[in-house]
């Protein structure tokens, strides 16, 4: 039985120390708590988490003795790249700080079917309460990491860097982007607050690339990097004349990208974006662009099949 005397605030503080620095964010902790609440209580009432969480699992309450102490094992059922082991551990810690969680694989590890990822022991009811929430995160994050690794491998040796986008599941931004890192990719901006990315709608609203960049510089100076999206070579020339920090080549065909790289001549880093897939990313990288961003990494990655078994 979980220790109901331990406050939710104390559990959250303990869970934070389990997470890597990239995930020690209030939004991540809130997400983990909310995910447990929606699984345990019909109104997802967070205040109910101050009580014994196992009371919310009516099946385990009915079938597992309160004093039962069990062992559990988390295994991969497919080949891929693991991401989210500390997140799964934090989930179980939120349920019951007394659960023993021994990681047997680390984030970024390549695993095969049958690879043991962790062994756990503790309250049988608590293990079953945390199981699905922990696996939901672990399977999704590992799926993203696995797909990212495939993209990274596809462009190996070209010098191009794989980037993610903001096309993440709402509320899962930090976890999704962390998973891309585990797969060997890099993060683009986290949100709307940490980089100026002037895209087509901003350009249209501002009346052109030049006035959009001028207004951005006037308001923020050099506080933020400025990236501009261009859709043709004329816009590329205009952006190059403005001294921006990066230029995004939006949905350009391969030949146009090759010409863009020659025009740029290493003056400004170029990022290719739009309809990037495993089938074409190598060809895109070979045009000479510096970065390639793909929303597929986070909006279309299949989950990695991972399970937990008592025994």
Q: Explain this structure to me?
A:
- This protein is an alpha/beta fold and 311 residues long.
- The protein folds into 2 domains: 8-144 and 302-310, Aldehyde Oxidoreductase, domain 3 (Alpha-Beta Complex), CATH 3.90.1170; 153-299, Aldolase class I (TIM Barrel), CATH 3.20.20.70.
- Helix content is 42%, strand content 17%.
- It has 12 helices and 12 strands.
- It has a 6-stranded parallel sheet with strand order 6-11-10-9-8-7.
- Strand 8, helix 9 and strand 9 (246-250) form a beta-alpha-beta unit.
- Helix 4 runs antiparallel to helix 5 (124-154) and helix 9 (233-240) packs parallel to helix 10 (254-264).
- The longest helix has 31 residues, at 124-154.
- Nearest-integer average pLDDT: 95
Q: Secondary-structure element sequence?
A: HHHEEHEEEHEHEHHEHEHEHEHE
What is the CATH topology of the largest domain? TIM Barrel
Radius of gyration: 23 Å
**Which CATH class of the largest domain is shown?**
Alpha Beta
Annotation field: number of helices: 12
Helix content bin: 40-55%
If classified by CATH, what would the architecture of the largest domain be? Alpha-Beta Barrel
By helix and strand content, what is the structural category?
A: alpha/beta
**Which outline best applies?**
elongated
Tell me the number of strands. Answer: 12
Supply the number of structural domains. Answer: 2
- Per CATH, the superfamily of the largest domain is Aldolase class I
